[in-house]
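Example 603, ligand manganese (II) ion.
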Amino acid sequence: MNIAFESWSQHPQLKAWIEEMVQLCHPKEVHLCDGSKKEYDTLCQQLVENKMFLPLNPQKRPGSFWCVSHPSDVARVEDRTFICSKTAEDAGPTNHWKNPEEMKHILTKLFQGCMEGRVMYVVPFSMGPYGSKLSLLGVQITDSPYAVVHMYIMTRMGKEALKVLGEKGEFIPGMHSVGMPLKPGEQDSTWPCSSTKYIVQFPEERSIWSYGSGYGGNALLGKKCLALRIASAKARDEGWLAEHMLILGITNPAGEKKYFVAAFPSSCGKTNLAMITPTMPGWKTECVGDDIAWMRFGADGRLYAINPENGFFGVAPGTSMLSNPNAMKTIQKNTLYTNVALTEDYDVWWEGMTPNPPEKLTSWKNTPWTPKMSEPAAHPNSRFTVPSQQCPIISPSFNDPQGVPISGIIFGGRRASLAPLVYETFDWEHGVFIGASLSSEMTAAAKGTIGQLRHDPFAMLPFCGYNMGDYFGHWLEMGKKTQPQKLPKVFHVNWFKKGADGKFLWPGYGENARVLKWMFDRVSQPSRVEAKKTPIGLIPHLEDLDLQGLSCSHQQLQELFSIDKEQWRTEVVELKKYFKIFQKHLPEGIQRQLQALEERVGV
Ligand code: O2Y
Ligand code: MN
């Protein structure tokens, strides 16, 4: 097959890889993507003609499309996700592992002829702003035009990325197929995929192979596969951090600005916090990212973060003008919707968008739906995909190659009891211990029993590309790279603490900015407020929390900040049991902190 590389790239290694993959997959045609708007529009039009996309009402959602997946292909497949490092020990106890040679054998067989009858698209992209030391380049080969248009939104894709790559640049190759070759004359499915799925990362050779799924994190290889699993292994080797964290800027009425990163397990309102509208007068926020942060120390000894992505792939259910008005404004146009419900006038709807559903909908299963039905109209993992630049509070530093300086790191979980609304850790080592101890009670949205505790260290459980015990060690080492006063302060928040009546004690949403304000004061140098020492960390003096205009009783506040030593002793027992899985990879610093916590909460 003659591939028109001339005006595209002269990178010998890239060309050789594409030719090798053509030999393996036998596509009918190769499309070298340029990342232009024209290319995006043409592909969206083709997806409309092939009935995968439905254009939405141009009066209500201009430039937007509705799409539903195969009912078996609706989310990341954690049990089919593999870290194929040389040894099982390097993948660690929290990842699935297979010997790399064995896995390559399996993949080679699966990919053999897998693109017959389909177009092979080659997508060059940059994760992170062009010209940033923190950015990385990737190239995804895929037979899914759905993946291409999503990569167009989620990454900086096309000619510009190729220019940065030049003829010698380094790139991370990602091979993707939906795993459904087309025979001559065969009618294509509206959502091609396979019942066999493999999402595979080779962290040492830094490559990705994904087979069988066309959905989200399984198919958009720049996101979880590259920006977290591969990047975390690269970050360990090179002394930086690739994290599952939002990046948020907050400015006080005097015009001082500070940036925070935050890690939350799923269903804890991460996108809502990333786009928060503060309720306190004069305070402003800006969103740098809602999901992933790459961080390195700058020449001044401070930690700087970039968002490697260029779009939001947000979960739709629960997103409303109450929970996240900025997200609702962001997705008003040029948005791709997957697995949400469709209204009669070609708009979208999902559970939680409005208090009551419309009388008639088309469900995510593409069947008529009425409010009497017990199944949700939108899939709980339905998504919107939208350019970050459409967010009304997108940060002016979004494209800054330097990144933004980070003053605080926030960890959070959903705990009905135990953790107070907010506490600050004593120092970096204690902060790393809190990140490692992160756990959350599962909601209906997650697999498993409602209310059951799931350990999710640093919210990285499905995303760490190597042994999680070594990852804790890497975080501890990072803390030694600069002077202690230049390190961000580390906090833990729990928006979900409940009172004896079973009701949430804290109103959440925009009111969470009051907690950010306390952190803002704490990270100021020198700190503007003192904090109260407790056995678990430093909590606010109640008078330092700005509660003006908030109807929160004294009793509620007492409960929000109460520390039940008995519950913490149970937590220590649970953590001891959990940390045992890391065996000799559990760093001394984590053991030391566990011991110290045990002593502080002891009788
Ligand atoms: O299910 C998927 O494929 C998407 S998962 C996802 C998407 C955006 C941001 N975060 C996540 C996640 O699972 O953490
Ligand atoms: Mn995420």
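Summary: The chain has three domains: 12-32+68-238, 242-307+398-601, 312-389.
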